[in-house]
Write a structure and sequence with these properties.
Helices cover 18% and strands 33% of the residues. The protein is α+β, with helices and mostly antiparallel strands. The protein has one domain. Strand 3 (107-117) and strand 4 form a beta hairpin.
């Protein structure tokens, strides 16, 4: 894999008989959460919508994302590609977070992609990303580059959001999180992670963290 150094930085039955998840609870829950977020009257028990949607096998990639990411970094050695950026990646993972109104997330962003795996740290120049509110739901999209993502953001606690979405390549149709498409099984295209609002005004996304790899997005205006 080639990289460039960072310059800074969802049981009803379907017609086929397949079990599918009902969509109306998700729609209702999203509407409630959206209204509460905008009004500021949001409590912890009202932000667990994403837990009713996520596949069980993806929970760890959300709840244990920081620990998994740091374990991957600890496996890197001085001969691995991009090792000189290790301190910058650790600093980004440890960056101070700060809650902000949800509408501050909306709009266009420049997002730097940093991919970390057994072979090293692979960082890329900024791509185009956007966060929109669509029918009461917060929608994230990475719009440029060969590897793209799209999905939904769910407020989990002040300053912390959960991302459930899918990945696709180039101009292929965007893939949604498989739970939303009626599948009770996860799919290879599924992508999950977290988004935090940072004290400096930037956003950090930690995606698909497992025992051997993860990806970071740093979103800047």
């Amino acid at each position: 894999m080639k990289g460039q150094t960072m310059s800074g930085w969802r049981r009803n039955k379907s017609k086929t008989g397949q079990a599918v998840r009902s969509e109306w609870p998700r729609t209702l829950a999203l509407a409630v959460v959206a209204a509460l977020v905008l009004s500021g009257a949001l409590r912890a028990e009202q932000v667990d919508v994403w837990r009713s949607l996520i596949h069980a096998e993806h929970l760890a990639a959300v709840e244990q994302a920081p620990a998994r990411a740091k374990a991957v970094l600890a496996q890197l050695g001085s001969d691995d590609y991009g090792y000189t950026e290790l301190d910058q990646v650790r600093a980004l993972l440890d960056a101070e977070t700060s809650a902000r109104p949800a509408d501050r997330l909306l709009g266009k962003w420049r997002c730097r992609s940093i991919q970390i795996n057994d072979y090293g740290i692979f960082s890329y120049p900024p791509f185009r990303c956007q966060i929109r509110q669509v029918e009461g739901e917060w929608d994230f999209r990475k719009l440029s580059g060969s590897q793209r993502r799209s999905g939904s953001l769910y407020l989990d606690s002040p300053g912390n959001w959960v991302f459930l979405g899918g990945s696709h390549v180039n101009d292929d149709p965007p893939r949604h999180y498989s739970g939303f498409e009626g599948s009770i099984q996860s799919q290879p295209s599924d992508s999950v992670g977290t988004l935090q609002t940072l004290a400096d005004g930037q956003l950090r996304m930690l995606l698909d963290a497992d025992s051997g790899s993860f990806e970071l997005y740093l979103l800047e205006r």
